[in-house]
Amino acid sequence: MTHLLQTEALVFLLLVAPLCLYVTWTDLSQMRIPNVAVLILVAIFAVAGLFLLPLEVYAMRWVWAVVVLAVGFVLSTVGPVAIGAGDAKFAAALTLFIAAGDGGRFLTLFAGVLLASWMIHRVARKIPALRSATPNWVSWESGKLFPMGVALAGTLILYLALGAAAI
User: Pick from 17, 22, 2: which is nearest to 160 by CA?
Assistant: First the structure.
């Protein structure tokens, strides 16, 4: 099993961080992850991954992304309470950036980021100054639904940043 290499992490981080911030913004404001963001994330990996990874590792990451996409679509058919279709597509795309040996590490990071982002979102939507600064954000009125793209994008940034710092 391979682990994330520092150079790989740094290059991927520089390429995907702005897109992850965009996904966070759109998921908070619209409760959706645009398909174009998912396609750009896939395109980044398709090109940069060819230069950064051995061919067998590159190919295996595509296999895992397809598996995650299939599982995500099954979960999205259960209803929006399980996972949204945009979240499923984004999760599959970000799987491309996770080294096979780091699956457990990534899931542990995701659990922490998910819990923290959920709590921060729940508190933030009760702060009048934030609400008035972002009056049209759909996520403020989402009830039990949570903009999962926030946690997914945040976890990918954190995972790559830790890898780039060789932690």
Answer: 17
